[in-house]
Amino acid sequence: MAIAILGGGISGLTLAWYLQRAGVDYDLFEASPRPGGNIRTEQQNGYLVETGPNSLQLSAELQELLTGLGLNGQLQEAAAVSQNRYVLRQGRYQQLPASPPKLLTSPFFSLKTRLGMVRELFQPAGPVNEQETLTEFFTRRFGPEVVEYALNPFISGIYAGDPARLLMHKTFPQLAALEQQYGSVIRGLMKTKNPAGRRRIVSLAGGLQTIPDTLAAKLRRAHFGQTATHLHRRTDDGRWELETTAGPAPRLYHQVVLALPTYAAAPLLQAQFPAVAAALSQVQHPPMTAIYTAYYRADVGHPLDGFGALNPKAEQPYAAGSIWTSSIFPGRAPAGQVLFTTFVGGSQYEDHARQPEAEQKAAVHQELSRLYGIRAGAGPVWQYRYYWDQSIPQFDAHIGPAHAAADALAEQGLYVAANWRSGVGVPDCVRQARQLATALAAL
């Protein structure tokens, strides 16, 4: 049995790694000469920037992968201050309470909202509604202030999304399940709290690019710089024919795994599975820009004692928020400087994402100066821009048909391992790839 894996992001690489360890024959094809997909680390003039994920939550599956790759010695723990998260409110950054008990006692939310949280403990579960949006769910359980000053900035900054469009059962299925099981989300969170605390936030020395680079170096049948151009299932024996920009694939395949974004997978499916291709092409990937800005530490008035800060849409910001990159991990900026990673765009700010580079950089500097007490007249020491025309897949009304289409493809020996199916986080992708490798090895 031979398996073709199309895509060399973290999902495809992890799948190939575990198939190889299980003794299953495979070929991995990746269009780029560089492995890793959205995981990308760049060294720029003494600055280390992540143009994809900036850090990782260390799940059990991710820990297992790093151990198998021999990378535990390169792990970097996030600084203790990274537990602090800030939200813009009334023109200044205020620390967001980090736990349900602190939410109930902190003045961050109004007394009315905090009393509503207490009532949530005794509010019965609502009916299961798989089309309920995040805004609808959180308004129903906690009220509009929580949506405006906690949910909205979180979804905009982390998922590049709009909570009024994203579906609760697709984006946060665990929270939806807690409501049904315990009758209260807060009660469910308290009962299921991990005794060890929240997951560790980590990176690697030299950046996260180390993970895909190490995986690629260990794979025996990985073909980089080869774009899949044609995929066809034969009617006589059910095996798959594959062509790439380098020519026909070296053999026929019993199974194929699409470790690709929807917009790259859809064209390959158009000829034989037009309905599936149509469903995948509807998945939204809003544009997003990251602006990296460095200042001399002495010019910045804010203590930067946290992971970063998010900007609610109600505050009418330019950017969705910033990660305080140099506060979290060492070696991200030269000594005596601080580095911000600021996100511009997403589905709520698409017009900002597409503005000219010089205009974006100037607007980000202006907003950072106003919000962080940067000394008058002090400009950035350095700025850099990275743009995604299509960023994080949105788990909105279009994702359900795409998921159903992916499930139907599995009956044809065509599987999906990608962030639009597993969840957008790297730990989600690693978990799904590990599970799929186990299932394919058992065939």
User: Approximately what portion of the residues adopt beta-strand conformation?
Assistant: 15-25%
CATH-level-4 superfamily name of the largest domain: FAD/NAD(P)-binding domain
Write the CATH fold name of the largest domain: FAD/NAD(P)-binding domain
At the first level of CATH, what is the class of the largest domain?
A: Alpha Beta
| Class by SSE composition | alpha/beta
Dominant shape? globular
Mean pLDDT: 94
Say how many strands there are: 20
The span between the termini is 9 Å
The Cα radius of gyration reads: 23 Å
| Total helical elements | 18
The residue fraction in helices comes out at 25-40%
> What CATH architecture of the largest domain would you give?
3-Layer(bba) Sandwich
| Unreliable stretches | none
Query: What characterizes the major β-sheet?
Result: 7 strands, mixed
Number of domains: 3
Give the strand order of the largest sheet, numbering strands 1, 2, ... along the chain. 8-7-16-17-18-15-19
Write a structural description.
This protein is an alpha/beta fold and 443 residues long. It folds into three domains: 2-39 and 210-284 and 394-441, 3-Layer(bba) Sandwich (FAD/NAD(P)-binding domain), CATH 3.50.50; 109-191, protoporphyrinogen ix oxidase, domain 3, CATH 1.10.3110; 286-388, Polyamine Oxidase, Chain A, domain 2 (Alpha-Beta Complex). It is built from 18 helices and 20 strands. It has helices at residues 10-21, 60-68, 100-105, 111-120, 134-142, 144-159, 168-171, 173-182, 185-191, 210-218, 262-269, 274-281, 325-328, 350-353, 357-372, 399-410, 419-422, 426-441, and strands spanning 2-6, 25-30, 41-44, 47-50, 56-57, 75-77, 85-89, 92-95, 201-204, 222-224, 228-233, 240-244, 247-248, 255-258, 288-296, 308-310, 321-324, 337-345, 382-388, 414-416. The strands form five sheets. Strands 8-7-16-17-18-15-19 form a seven-stranded mixed beta sheet. Strands 10-2-1-14-20 form a five-stranded parallel beta sheet. A three-stranded antiparallel beta sheet has the order 5-9-6, with no helix packed on it. The protein is globular, with a radius of gyration of 23 Å.
